[in-house]
Amino acid sequence: MSTENKEPRSYRNAQGKLVLPQVTLCAMTSVNVRETLKAMEYSCRGIEFADAVIITDKKPRFLPKGIRYSHIDRLGNIDAFNYKTVYDMGDYIHTDFALLVHYDGFVVHPEMWRDEFLDYDYIGSPWPLPKPGDDTTYRDIYGNICRVGNSVGIRSKRLMDYPKKAGIPWVGEKGYFNEDGFICCKIRHLLEAEGMRIAPLEVAKYFGHENMIPEIEGITPFVFHKWYGTNAGYPDFRKKHTVLNSLRRLHGRLKGGN
């Protein structure tokens, strides 16, 4: 995105809530839908997004207020999710940016928002350096190491729409089709040729955390992904649901005499 416009991208409303008028909160999944909706609700604590949408194959029975449902064919596996995220997610977004969250990655510190996050077409959590001898992971077509990716993050509408509009072929790496790797490494050169920008490590380390790399030490992130290291204390909406299901199964066995 162009950095010429330095007008504030956010503001506080009368209730002191952060308002992001250019950003849609979104999630796309066919599994853990209840937990994903909880993660979306949690992400809205202290933030008023322009829009919020759950993209899934069945309308959730109890759809939280403020979150709309959009239909997509069932995502039967992770490969289907990766493909649809790259080529179709933009069809559901009507704002300049979208923040993609999952049941295991969402906003945890709204107070850590920075307007500079919207200076870029893609920002996610930093990646670690490739392991010694690995000359393909986290690298673009020129062999340059890419330090920022991660599925949980902000993308511009322009970036989301680009792969489908440009007819970019779906090509994996070593048999794997990871949407964030495809965007931030595989086609990075194409995005940059169109003037799009992926955030540098120096900014992304304040945005989100997944891998416990030295560069994030002592930093409180806006979002997280996966309950590793310093992320371990963030909410896990599977827990209560898992316990309740276990109790129901136990009750059923006792009632049946097994």
Automatic annotation (TrEMBL):
Alphabetical list of InterPro entries matching this protein: DUF5672
Pfam families (UniProt xref): DUF5672
Residues annotated as domain DUF5672: 94-223
Name this polypeptide is given: DUF5672 domain-containing protein
Lineage, top ranks: Bacteria, Bacillati, Bacillota, Clostridia, Lachnospirales
